[in-house]
Amino acid sequence: MKHKILALSAVVMSALAYGQVQVSVSTGYAFASAGMKLGETVNVSETGNSYGSYGEGANVQLRGTYFFNDSFGADLSLGYLQGADQTVSEVNIPNTDINAVARARAFGASASVVYKFTNNIYGRFGALIKVGGKTEAVVSRKAAFSEAEANAFNVPVGSFSETTYTEDFHGHFPLGFVGALGYKFDLDSNFSLFVEAEYYGISLKRKDSELSEFNTNIVLPDGTVAVEGFYSLDNLPDGTVKKTTYVDDLSNTNTDPSKKLSQKVPYSSFGLNFGITYKFKKRAEK
């Protein structure tokens, strides 16, 4: 046992003696990978599915890497995703227009193993988590009044309600996979540029959502606002709740609008990153 401990200690000390630390900063853009159905588009002639992933969008990353020898290293990364708009609902039918999009505003982290195939080509793979942020839904809805509704509001026929609101969705703690293949070009002994193809495989199970903005105006046929703020965040329409909780099981007799069945939403993506790396001197050199 003593000999095993000594041998392990020697390996660790050797790795630490060699150890090289480097810090990288990058930015890039990711596209949807294995997009799932996110919503529907509806017009007078047909209804179609809308596919995508909330992982699509621009990102920035800060990464620290420790190399134990010439080939193997460990990598920790923090990143932010500015997700692209994904169509959730697009309805264009007589008397009703709805445009609803959702986008990610998420912080993530990953822990990976790095392997250098050559001095210029490397790969990394590991675990990915989302550590914060939200999926933000932005909705706009116009609904024309019937003659009875126009009379009730004492406005001309052709008037309509215009509702806009924002709802923030949060999820349970997720765990996914990250893998990348990259090429680096050394500028000098400390700085290098790199480009890499990166894959994220992750989905998020919804936990709750909350309205952060809500407003309904009554608008005349010429576009003039007759009543501003008829409904607001402090005065929601009947059947509309400020906060919703998502559960796995829901009674068939449930009448509570604040509870809905949960679902998984995709964050998987495939993208390209460009960045710069600073390499500290090796311990052995010091």
From TrEMBL:
Residues forming the Outer membrane protein beta-barrel domain are 6-214
Do you know which SUPFAM superfamilies this protein is assigned to? OMPA-like
Q: Where is the signal peptide?
A: 1-23
Give yes or no: UniProt keyword Amino-acid biosynthesis: no
Specify one Pfam family.
OMP_b-brl
Q: Report TM segments.
A: none
Q: Per UniProt, which keywords does this protein have? A: Signal
Q: What is this protein called?
A: Outer membrane beta-barrel protein
Lineage at the top is:
Bacteria, Pseudomonadati, Bacteroidota, Flavobacteriia, Flavobacteriales
